[in-house]
Amino acid sequence: MISGKAMAGKTVVKGRNILGRVYRCPVCGAELSVIKGGSGELKPICCNTEMIMLEPINTVYVCSVCRSELMVIKNGENLEPICCNKKMKIKTRLY
Ligand SMILES: [Zn+2]
Ligand SMILES: [Zn+2]
């Protein structure tokens, strides 16, 4: 399911709280995404219900110059974020 096939740089897919991991509340549809992964046991609660971990992981791009990071909220087809005049690298993604 999670293969570390990044184009460049390191792929952070180890540990429980993976960067970009998405959780959804089955009651109201609220969604969360991990923007800083840790090793704790993440159990987000919404509407008195434990949120469901979803399969998709939001792609995160990182700038190799200034270390800025972007998270994709809604994907497109030709996404190509630029920072510091350079193409940003993919840090995490689903496939
Ligand atoms: Zn909710
Ligand atoms: Zn930059």
Automatic annotation (TrEMBL):
<dbReference type="InterPro" id="IPR004462">
    <property type="entry name" value="Desulfoferrodoxin_N"/>
</dbReference>
<dbReference type="Pfam" id="PF06397">
    <property type="entry name" value="Desulfoferrod_N"/>
</dbReference>
<keyword id="KW-0249">Electron transport</keyword>
<keyword id="KW-0479">Metal-binding</keyword>
<dbReference type="GO" id="GO:0005506">
    <property type="term" value="F:iron ion binding"/>
</dbReference>
<dbReference type="InterPro" id="IPR038094">
    <property type="entry name" value="Desulfoferrodoxin_N_sf"/>
</dbReference>
<keyword id="KW-0408">Iron</keyword>
<feature type="domain" description="Desulfoferrodoxin N-terminal">
    <location>
        <begin position="21"/>
        <end position="52"/>
    </location>
</feature>
<keyword id="KW-0813">Transport</keyword>
<protein>
    <recommendedName>
        <fullName>Desulfoferrodoxin N-terminal domain-containing protein</fullName>
    </recommendedName>
</protein>
